[in-house]
Every structure is written in structure tokens, then in C-alpha cells.
Amino acid sequence: MPNHPVSSPNDEATIRVRVRRFDPQTNGQPPYWQDFQVPRGRVARLLDVLQYLQQEDPTIATRPHFCRDLVCNGCYVNYNGKPRMSCMTPLNARVTDITLEPLQGYRVIRDLVVDFLDKTCGNSAAEDEAGV
After folding, report:
1. How far apart are CA 75 and CA 112, in angstroms?
2. How open is the CA angle 72-76-80, to the nearest 5 degrees?
3. What pTM does this model have?
4. How far does Cα 33 stand from its chain's mean position?
5. What pLDDT, on the 0 to 100 scale, is given for residue 26?
6. What is the CATH number of domain 14-126?
7. Which long-range CB contacts under 8 A does 23-29 form with residues at least 24 apart?
């Protein structure tokens, strides 16, 4: 599937956010990457990035509600290859690129949402077939 960048509403500095998209309900369509441009001035934490992305493209699956207090663990994603709680991950002022993937070791429900009750030993069978 092709990348469809979401443009920044103006020319302010942006962060390139690369999101791994996957919907197991799409009859074997493999995971793919989609790039977005997020205005730097609108985000301070990784959670802000996720909320901005969902506002700009409601088809992105993220967990809609977060406790914002290190309690629920529902906001975990892989941020640049490392598991991070998005509610407590500040963005470095120099960051220009972010890669977001679902938390590894769990069944992917869709995009960045995983089933925390269904821990697997690795990727789903569909992801393994796609080489992701």
C-alpha cells in the first residue's frame, strides 16, 4: 500500500512520523508503513503525537483513552524500536524522525493497538509471512 503523507497545516517545523499500519481483518494484506508530518509546536510528548495523528487520520488505530499517570499501561508502543509509555515519553527538541510500531510480543488488533491479554512469542503468522 502506498504512503500517503498528511501535510502540516502550515510551514512550521515538523517531525516526520513513520507508522506501521496493519489490519488483520483485510484478508491477508501485509503490514505497511505510512508517513506523517506533525507540527513540532503542537506536541511535547509521544502521547501528543498519537493524538495528533488520530485527529488528522481517524483510520489510525490507537488506544483512545489514557490514564496519563503511569497506571493503565495502555499507551505502550514501540518508539524508535524501544517499548515506551507514550504518556510519559517527552520528545527531545532535536528529534526530527519518529518510528512507531505496535508493542512486540502481543497480537496486533490493528495498527498500534495490541491485545495485552494475548501475549505471543513474536509476530503474528500474517506478519511473519509478510516478512515484517
Report:
1. 9
2. 160
3. 0.77
4. 10
5. 84
6. 3.10.20.30
7. 23/61, 23/110, 23/111, 24/108, 24/109, 24/110, 24/124, 24/126, 25/110, 28/126, 29/1
